[in-house]
Design goal:
Elements lengths: L10 H18 L2 H14 L1 E3 L5 E3 L2 H29 L1
Antiparallel strand pairs: 1-2
Helix pairs in contact: 1-2, 1-3, 2-3
């Protein structure tokens, strides 16, 4: 995901907008695309120190990533259950 803008936009606002796109993708059923967006936002919001420990640049954005990832996991579980039910 390349984040480019010609307007002076705060980067965290732009990343938050991408998370709303990821939520939309989950609702439509494009789970793989949503997962890649969430991973990219999570990586852009991360900072690693010398020992390899991760810290979030914005805690609210980090919590949003975790919440949307939880919804994504639930959507995957529901999809598997429906497929399993159809196969029987």
């Amino acid at each position: 995901m390349v984040v480019r803008s010609f307007l002076p936009v705060e980067p965290f606002l732009l990343l938050r907008s991408w998370l709303f796109v990821a939520m939309s993708q989950v609702q439509v059923g494009h789970l793989g695309h949503a997962a890649s967006i969430i991973r990219a936002v999570h990586l852009a919001n991360s900072r690693y120190d010398e020992s390899g420990r991760r810290s979030a640049l914005d805690d609210k954005l980090d919590n949003m990533c975790r919440g949307i990832w939880s919804r994504l996991r639930h959507a995957r579980i529901v999809r598997r259950r429906k497929a399993k039910k159809r196969a029987q």
